[in-house]
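Lab notebook, bench 4. Continuing the backlog of folding jobs that were queued last week. Each job is logged with the same field layout so the records can be merged later without manual cleanup. Today's entry covers Nucleoside phosphorylase domain-containing protein, a 348-residue chain. Filled in by technician R.K.

JOB TYPE: sequence-to-structure
TARGET: Nucleoside phosphorylase domain-containing protein
LENGTH: 348
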Amino acid sequence: MGSHLRMELMVFLVLVFWGINSIAYGAVSHTTMRKIDILNKKGPYLGIVVPNFFELNPLLQSTSFVADQKLPYLDFSGRRFRIGRLEDESVIIVMTGLSMLNAGISTQLLLSLFKVKGVVHYGIAGNADPQLQIGDVTIPQFWAHTGLWNWQRFGDGPGNELSLESFGDYTRKVGHIKFSDFNNETRDGKSVPNLLNNVWYQPEEVFPVHGTPEVRQHAFWVPVNPKFFSVAKDLEDLKLGGCVNTTCLPRAPIVVRVKRGISASVFVDNRAYREFLNSKFNATSIDMESAAVALVCHQQKKPFIVIRALSDLAGGGSSLSNEANTFASLAAQNAVDVVLRFISLLSS
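JOB STATUS: finished
OUTPUT FIELD FOLLOWS
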């Protein structure tokens, strides 16, 4: 074999080996990096984060969405980032999938890969506020993750220190739920001890992008961007759909700014817990993703807002009704209508 041919073979093997290792270690390929560079030169973008396809589809089918002709999407790490324009605003849209983990990963990828100036997260949600109805679109000012717990041992109560609390890992400041408060049965009219005892809600550990690495901070109620929240006030007179085929809601849905929304990787279809969340936290919207988006944006210091349309009563309706199946499509469309109007106001 000639020396020239051996050299070419060695170069080929090195490139193959390098490529295999690049893939194995999750490195961004040169091809993908070039595409990202091209996109970022056209930025910054407004990031649109959506949980599931049935919430995304009405947006993609809207006449307001125009996909980029040269690079309509970029696939990376199991996510598809769709590039285009909405209401004359440059946007990158990503679908997260269900739950806090997926929402957090997708939002972090969006902010790490692309030049993003702000994030709009939208979707449907359960409703914990008896003053509102299905079809209404809520825009909470604060978001919290209520799925991080310290589960207290049986026999201990509010006066007992939690495990590792003295190390600063856990706290009793947020509050707790006492399971025996929800017992159906009592003995002689007295409360029966419940082996599940108490769960104490915990703030998240956060590591802000401008903070000191590995030096933790804590966050429970995360505020949306004040400017975005102020712009959202002008959405309150927007007309929304109120019927699915021949099934119509008691009144026309409204857009309303509310105080608080909460998220956890739990689908709430339980009246008692719904009422507890409303009375304990003054929560309106209940979902499985928004707080993850909020926490990532909070750590990355990116402006964000969350728009959630109410699709069900989180267990507060009749046991014979299935509100989510009936009204999910209506709620998703209402959320999209509000998002489009919000983007129009934001860019005007």
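OBSERVATION: The chain has a mean pLDDT of 91.
SIGNED: R.K.
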